[in-house]
Amino acid sequence: MPYRLLAATELAEFLKVLSHPRRIQILEELSSGERDVASLASATGLAPSNVSQHLMLLRARRVVAERREGRRVIYHLRSERLATWIVEGMDFLAPMDDRADEVRKAIKKAKSKWSE
Length: 116
Known about the structure:
With 116 residues, this protein is an alpha+beta fold. It is 61% helix and 12% strand. The protein is globular.
């Protein structure tokens, strides 16, 4: 496989794992530091089993890593730059439908919170 296609394929696979809104929420929560499944579930409003499923996919693509404290599993971003990259990526969002104003405001609030 030509190197450019191989690189593009790997990037597409990486972006696929990021393409779920709940995974982005989980990454945002991890941007402020390590968290366990229970605290991620509480912060996102997801069931712990659902958080675990998302973390499994993120771990498989090496987006997050884990460490153990006894029976507790603590997760963290493998690269803190990823959270910054996601926030900066919001600059490319250009809502063009009837909810454009609502979406713009939501993006502005999210960028503000995630950049803290």
